[in-house]
Inverse folding.
């Protein structure tokens, strides 16, 4: 992925800062259907951007393109990440058949963290996930919320500048969701840019600083969260927020 | 039933007294079959994992051959190796015919496709589950293969056991390339066949019982070693 950086004004933000990631003319077809169509998006280098849109809008595929897991047919993703990778966490966390600490050690090895630094980093990640007292427990015996917290801190093992989260709380109860939201907020406070896909309007309103709305494989609008929820610019976004948008 | 009762009694007598001839046959059988399975695992597991993970021209054809080779008739393998190792054969220089080494080669040929095919199947299944996550964690191809092999360890143990079962039960190939020579290449299965044809059931029975006990013991040990399943890889 080429690295290129350019100062771009971001809607609703006074200061002009270079975006951490920019998507230009991104297109992707699957089974003869355009699932991403000329997607244009610039992500500010801080805070939490929420991606919203109906099922099939292309949110998860866009996230995978941003992470470099899916090669687009057209267009490109430009990043200012340098050597630091983007990390992606899926809706259902896939954990190795090892202990909680074993999963994190494996991620630290993959991230080529020097051996002498791993123990301290492991402790930090366990603390961040609130799983310090379950380090030796088999990861697959954790609750759904704990597994998702483990998956998120595992993704942070490589110290990414950009964390992409694909509906991380969609199958969790309110308490587990609150824990995940606290973890995400703390990660963003620590300077990691977060992109969160969610269908949960309340969660989006709690977490988002800006919202990008996707429909039909295109970004229909992108702006500050307050204006998106108060006065969405597109008819599709209005219909989506009112529960009237069908694909 | 009287003669069989006597045969059983004599068979147990041979086992209890650790009859030297019996022990020598059992020892050679273990040496040949375990060596073959170790070599087959060393070849078959990386081959199976590579067929599951790597994409290269001819991969499907090789996979097809590996799967088809699981059903290789032992006597045909024995015949092919006999011709290769015989004086007129291309491998005559190795001077392996009628040696335990030839028997190990024959069993390795029979066991490797089983280990490779079962490994490929297990790793391919895990790859569907883990590949995207491992790629998201920036694992290199080698790291992905190593991780998948480690995660597949219960299935790999099963593959090794299936191979050991095939090796222990095999008669035709080792009979042809080993020659069933007393004190040299006579193993449990070839002895059972020979002694039964001679009507000397006591030694055949003793060997048969030991073969069953060994098989059960190895499977029980493997079950003890196998990590317990701890639920799905992902949270529901």
């Amino acid at each position: 992925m080429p690295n290129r950086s350019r100062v771009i004004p971001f809607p609703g933000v006074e200061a002009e800062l270079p975006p951490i990631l920019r998507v230009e003319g991104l297109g992707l077809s699957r089974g003869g259907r355009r699932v991403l169509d000329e997607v244009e998006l610039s992500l500010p280098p801080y805070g939490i951007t929420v991606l919203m849109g109906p099922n099939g809008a292309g949110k998860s595929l866009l996230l995978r393109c941003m992470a470099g897991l899916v090669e687009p047919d057209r267009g490109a993703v430009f990043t200012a990440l340098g050597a630091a990778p983007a990390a992606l966490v899926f809706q259902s966390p896939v954990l190795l058949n090892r202990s909680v600490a074993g999963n994190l050690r494996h991620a630290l090895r993959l991230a080529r963290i020097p051996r002498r630094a791993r123990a301290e980093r492991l402790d930090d990640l366990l603390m961040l996930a609130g799983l310090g007292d379950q380090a030796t427990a088999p990861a697959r015996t954790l609750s759904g919320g704990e597994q998702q917290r483990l998956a998120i801190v595992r993704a942070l093992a490589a110290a990414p500048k950009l964390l992409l989260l694909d509906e991380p709380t969609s199958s969790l109860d309110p308490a587990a969701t609150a824990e995940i939201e606290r973890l995400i907020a703390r990660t963003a406070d620590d300077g990691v840019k977060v992109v969160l896909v969610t269908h949960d309007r309340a969660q989006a309103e709690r977490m988002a600083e800006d919202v990008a709305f996707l429909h039909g494989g295109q970004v229909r609008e992108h702006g500050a969260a307050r204006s998106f929820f108060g006065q969405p610019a597109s008819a599709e976004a209005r219909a989506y927020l009112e529960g009237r948008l069908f694909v | 039933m009287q003669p069989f009762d006597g045969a059983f009694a004599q068979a147990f007598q041979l086992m209890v007294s650790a009859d030297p001839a019996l022990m020598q046959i059992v020892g050679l059988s273990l040496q040949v079959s375990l060596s073959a399975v170790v070599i087959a695992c060393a070849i078959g597991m990386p081959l199976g994992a590579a067929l599951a993970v790597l994409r290269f021209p001819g991969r499907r054809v090789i996979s097809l051959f590996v799967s088809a080779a699981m059903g290789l008739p032992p006597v045909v393998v024995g015949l092919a190796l006999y011709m290769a190792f015989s004086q007129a054969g291309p491998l005559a220089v190795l001077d392996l015919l009628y040696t335990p080494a030839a028997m190990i080669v024959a069993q390795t040929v029979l066991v490797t496709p089983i280990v490779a095919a079962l490994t490929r199947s297990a790793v391919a299944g895990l790859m569907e589950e883990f590949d995207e996550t491992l790629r998201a964690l920036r694992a290199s191809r080698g790291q992905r293969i190593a991780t998948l092999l480690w995660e597949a360890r219960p299935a790999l143990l099963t593959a090794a056991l299936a191979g050991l079962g095939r090796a222990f039960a095999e008669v035709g190939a080792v009979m042809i390339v080993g020659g069933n020579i007393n004190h040299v290449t006579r193993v449990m299965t070839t002895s059972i066949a020979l002694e039964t044809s001679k009507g000397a059931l006591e030694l055949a029975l003793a060997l048969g019982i030991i073969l069953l006990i060994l098989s059960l013991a190895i499977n029980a040990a493997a079950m003890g070693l196998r990590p317990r399943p701890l639920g799905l890889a992902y949270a529901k």
